[in-house]
Design goal:
single chain, 42% strand, Thiol Ester Dehydrase, Chain A, 3 helices
């Protein structure tokens, strides 16, 4: 690929990071249960809502628009609590300019710093 064809990719640097904090209310979880067709209400934040925080960061912030998910691995270590501020982050760990591929670490923590979810993602970033 031509370096001039991917100026935003080449602006990325190792250790670039994006973060978002979100608190999910009981109403948020009820709405998600309704949309997902889940009969029993959750007493914690469902894992797909936490995964959505990573999708938001990758698609809107880092790398941003033009990102295509290729792989994601997530290890859920704790439950996110309803009403708790969850902080999700993505950090660039590897750049492959020849293929416009970006590897990122993903992490979500609770208010007390405990790890809710950790993992990694591989995305194609061609814009």
């Amino acid at each position: 690929m031509n370096a001039r064809a991917l100026p935003r990719f080449h602006a990325l640097k190792l250790e670039d990071q994006a973060t978002v904090a979100r608190t999910f209310s009981a109403e948020d979880v009820r709405e998600w249960c309704d949309l997902a067709g889940v009969d029993a209400p959750f007493d914690q934040v469902p894992e797909p809502l936490i995964a959505g925080l990573f999708s938001y960061l990758l698609g809107e912030h880092l790398p941003g628009h033009g990102t295509n998910y290729l792989k994601q691995h997530m290890r859920f270590e704790e439950q996110g609590r309803i009403g708790e501020a969850l902080t999700a982050s993505v950090t660039v760990t590897h750049l492959r300019p020849g293929k416009a591929l970006v590897n990122l670490d993903t992490l979500c923590t609770g208010e007390d710093g405990r790890v809710i979810c950790a993992g990694d993602a591989l995305v194609l970033f061609e814009q």
